[in-house]
Design a protein that fits this description.
Length: 136
């Protein structure tokens, strides 16, 4: 085999390997049950100034989030629990499987790391914060 032919075979082999690798990646990416795109990604990015304003309001309230297993609670600066807590989120591994609850409890069907938006309201005060929760 001449050196020229060896280079041609090597280049064709690398290109063929790349085609095989891309085919495997494309097929395996569809095996997870659909697209894995972060919900409302563009909307959240376009209105990031609202997130900054909400974070300032959260700091002024002094409320904080406490997570115990599947239970998410919000407590005020005095340590009293806020009654109206809603959760909305999705598992990181399956972004299409969204959930929403009004009782502060992560659904039993959700496992692994979850991106959760916690909303708590009392009187005219509103607390909204994004957290990552690991559900057993």
């Amino acid at each position: 085999m001449t050196p020229t032919l060896r280079w041609i075979v090597a280049i064709i082999g690398l290109l063929g390997g790349n085609v095989i690798a891309m085919t495997i990646l494309i097929v395996s990416s569809g095996a997870g049950g659909g697209a894995q795109v972060i919900p409302d990604y563009y909307e959240r990015a376009a209105h990031y100034d609202r997130t900054i304003d909400q974070e300032a309001a959260n700091r002024a309230l002094g409320w904080r989030i406490e997570v115990a297993g599947r239970r998410v609670t919000v407590v005020d600066a005095g340590g009293r629990a806020i009654e109206r807590v809603t959760l909305a989120g999705y598992p990181r591994a399956h972004a299409a499987q969204r959930f929403a609850t009004r009782d502060g409890e992560v659904p039993a069907a959700s496992h692994g790391w979850l991106d959760v938006t916690v909303t708590a309201e009392r009187g005219g005060d509103r607390f909204v914060q994004q957290v990552a929760v690991e559900a057993p």
